[in-house]
Amino acid sequence: MVKRLSGLKKGLSLVLAVSLAVAYVPASSSKAWAAPELKLNVKSAILIDAASGQVLYENNADEPLPPASMAKMMTEYILMERIDSGKLSWDSMVHTSHYAANVGGSGGMLAENEQLSVKDMLYALSIYSSNDAAVALAESMAGNEQQFVALMNEKAKELGMSKTHFTSATGLTRSDIEDPELKNNPLEGDTLMSARDAATLGLHLIKDHPTILEFTKIPSKKLRETDQFPMENWNWMLEGKATTNFQKQFAYPGMDGLKTGSTDAAGYCFTGTALRNGVRLVSVVMNAQSTKKNPNNSEREAARFIETRKLLDYGFNNFETKTVVTKDSAVATLPSVKVKKGLKNSVPVVVGGDVSLVLPKGIKDAEIKKAAVDTTGGKLTAPIKKGQELGTMTVSYGKITKTVKLVAAEDVKKAGVFRLFFRSVGDFFSRLGHTIKGWF
């Protein structure tokens, strides 16, 4: 009897388990929407939805370019990381070295051997883009700027910034450094960063360390109470920032950061971020150019804000966040997955979580593609726990794609020996019957 049962099992094992891989395609398949010609006067640009990380617009976004002071976002990131981890205190005092005090460029606020708190140094860095504060902070955290730059490059790799190379804490090139004695940077090349990497860094900065926005949104502030004049934020798009009638036209509702930058090599750059109706966007423009025939200095500087407004307006006016798949919903193209040795022969499949996409306004559900895949390979064996992963669903519209887990909707207990035996016998004779029927 045992030998006969063994033979039956070997015969039954010839039944093949076939995995499912199905996709829903609407009657008229959707294509990537055609982004309008924004006519941006820049070398590079990108616009990202902060919540999802989706790219809403890009133009030459992967070319490494000089970022100027936008490089200071990494100095801010590493500083905020140490503050938030408790390794550094806001009240810790930072010493200003000869190098820091004489590095040149924007800033010029600190005297050699002057000491200010970490918090005040960050005010100078974030509001006034102070190169002296950037170097002083770098030296206080790593001993010297070169060692700090090594930390910057390490963090860039960690954050996935593949087109970035730092050689300073400030974004200054060798030719920008004013003191001849300070030009001998042992690191090769100059700082380069792509627009996509700048957006990635800005996004991580505001997500991982949102306190930074409490600094970047300040229009003006005195560094010391005894100072005659306040530091003026270089970001003209901040509401309440305008110090001249010319600057007033660039105020943008919801703008609260993030970092400007300009050098001869970089031109005028800006990583901006604005929040409206619960939606936050991050934009980057690099080497923005004025369209004026003979622009003056203010008009040249304004170009980065004019181009940023185009990007942000495009994002806020043309996109919306839409939940296209809901958690625990059934999957029409993959309603269940077969189960071996269970009380039931199959387990129903549901979606493991919500899927939201940032889509052009007016997109209909039928235009969104959904592809469900059974990843069990036909080897799913009881017992099965509710919530156990069974597959994946890819949801896409044009270039926008997200993947969500498909899971078991309920438990499936393992069947007893006798139930399995009689089920095997029944399956065997059922297949035998179909085979015989096929002979006639």
Report on the architecture of this protein.
The chain has 440 residues and is of the alpha+beta class. The chain is 30% helix and 23% strand. It has 11 helices and 17 strands. The protein has helices spanning 2-12, 72-85, 98-102, 118-128, 131-142, 145-158, 195-208, 213-216, 245-248, 297-318, 417-439, and strands at residues 21-24, 44-49, 55-59, 93-95, 115-117, 220-221, 231-232, 255-263, 267-276, 279-288, 319-325, 336-338, 346-351, 355-360, 369-374, 389-397, 400-408. The radius of gyration is 30 Å and the shape is elongated.
The overall number of domains is 2
Largest sheet composition? 6 strands, antiparallel
* Element-by-element helix/strand order: HEEEHEHEHHHHHEEHEEEHEEEEEEEH
Tertiary shape: elongated
Record field, number of beta strands? 17
- Beginning-to-end CA distance, first to last residue: 33 Å
CATH superfamily of the largest domain: DD-peptidase/beta-lactamase superfamily
CATH topology assignment of the largest domain: Beta-lactamase
Q: In terms of structural class, how would the helical and strand content be classed? A: alpha+beta
Q: Into which percent range does the helicity of residues fall?
A: 25-40%
DSSP strand (E) fraction? 15-25%
Structure described in brief:
Helix content is 30%, strand content 23%.
Question: Any chance you could write out the topology, listing elements then pairs?
Answer:
Layout: H1 2-12, E1 21-24, E2 44-49, E3 55-59, H2 72-85, E4 93-95, H3 98-102, E5 115-117, H4 118-128, H5 131-142, H6 145-158, H7 195-208, H8 213-216, E6 220-221, E7 231-232, H9 245-248, E8 255-263, E9 267-276, E10 279-288, H10 297-318, E11 319-325, E12 336-338, E13 346-351, E14 355-360, E15 369-374, E16 389-397, E17 400-408, H11 417-439
Antiparallel strand pairs: 1-15, 2-3, 2-10, 4-5, 6-7, 8-9, 9-10, 11-14, 12-13, 13-17, 15-16, 16-17
Helix pairs in contact: 1-11, 2-7, 4-5, 5-6
